[in-house]
Design brief:
This protein is mainly α. The protein has seven helices and two strands; from the N terminus they run αββαααααα. Strand 1 and strand 2 form a beta hairpin. Helix 1 packs antiparallel against helix 2, helix 2 runs parallel beside helix 7 and helix 5 runs antiparallel to helix 6. The chain starts with a helix and ends in a 9-residue tail after the last helix.
């Protein structure tokens, strides 16, 4: 039994049910969740219940595999060449980020909308991890997650949907949790210095 999924699924399910009960019992103007200028207070309970059910459904699987994987995995060896290459890639990404930040401060918002800058930051983070992947360096799950959220947030900002960041963040987190066993199986994420 995967305890993390069991606990996370139980918490998501409990909060989703609580929000659903509040949605059904409170007057419509007491519970607000605006998407596209309309109150869609039913979205958070539905999303949380779906994530909770998915986590609880997958909780029984993988515990034996995790134990076997922990027993079989030796401590990864550090490759100094990969560590140096990763530092160079990170330096390039930081340089691009600061150039973009400076341009964002110089260029007025009337010339380029704010969402373009979010997309640019997301592309830098995803690009860093693509470069890591093609040079056989393990990717960073955190920067991939931030890059995906930045790109989606920028696109939504460009199309005028500024109030859906919360549900989109929940969908991305839920998707990452569901895909985590696949990522672990293929060992795509981890410490960049590992061989």
């Amino acid at each position: 039994m995967n305890k993390g999924r069991l606990i996370g699924g139980s918490i998501c399910l409990a909060i989703g049910i609580l929000l659903g009960v509040l949605y059904l019992t409170l007057p419509p103007d007491q519970m607000m969740f605006t998407i596209g200028g309309e109150n869609r207070a039913w979205v958070p309970p539905v999303v949380l219940v779906l994530i909770g059910i998915a986590l609880l459904a997958t909780a029984p699987f993988g515990a034996g595999q995790e134990r076997a994987a922990k027993e079989e995995k030796p401590k990864p060896a550090v490759d100094p060449d990969k560590a140096a290459l990763n530092k160079r890639l990170e330096a390039v990404a930081w340089g691009l980020f600061f150039i973009m930040l400076g341009c964002h401060l110089l260029v007025p918002e009337t010339f380029l909308p704010k969402g373009v800058w979010s997309i640019g930051v997301g592309l830098i983070l995803i690009g860093l991890n693509v470069a890591r992947y093609f040079t056989q360096i393990k990717m960073s799950g955190f920067t991939v997650f931030l890059g995906v959220v930045a790109i989606i947030g920028g696109i939504l900002d460009l199309v005028g949907m500024k109030q859906v960041e919360g549900p989109i963040l929940l969908v991305v987190v839920g998707t990452a949790l569901l895909l985590r066993p696949w990522f672990d199986k293929h060992a795509l994420f981890g410490s960049s210095e590992e061989r």
